[in-house]
Amino acid sequence: MPNIDLLKEKIKDSGIPMTVVAQKSGIVRETLYNRLSGIGDFTTSEVIGLTNALKLTKSERDQIFLQ
Questions:
Q1: Which residues fall within 8 angstroms of residue 56, CB to CB, at 6 or more apart?
Q2: pLDDT tens digits for 4-57?
Q3: Who contacts 22 (Cβ-Cβ below 8 Å, separation ≥6)?
Q4: pTM score, two decimals?
Q5: Rounded distance, CA 56 to CA 13, Å?
């Protein structure tokens, strides 16, 4: 189960608006909001997209998505 609170913190710290995070990560905005609300599971492509959009390190990615 992903660490949603940590992901939200990383998004906030990035200073990038949520709509832009969704665009940069290739995720439909509504889908991103659903994932952050615990609706549905992150797909591999969504994890990769968020990792790239937020410039997460491998360690940060693992802390968020591989708990």
A1: 10, 50, 64
A2: 999 999 999 999 999 999 999 999 999 999 999 999 999 999 999 999 999 999
A3: 28, 29, 31, 32
A4: 0.93
A5: 11
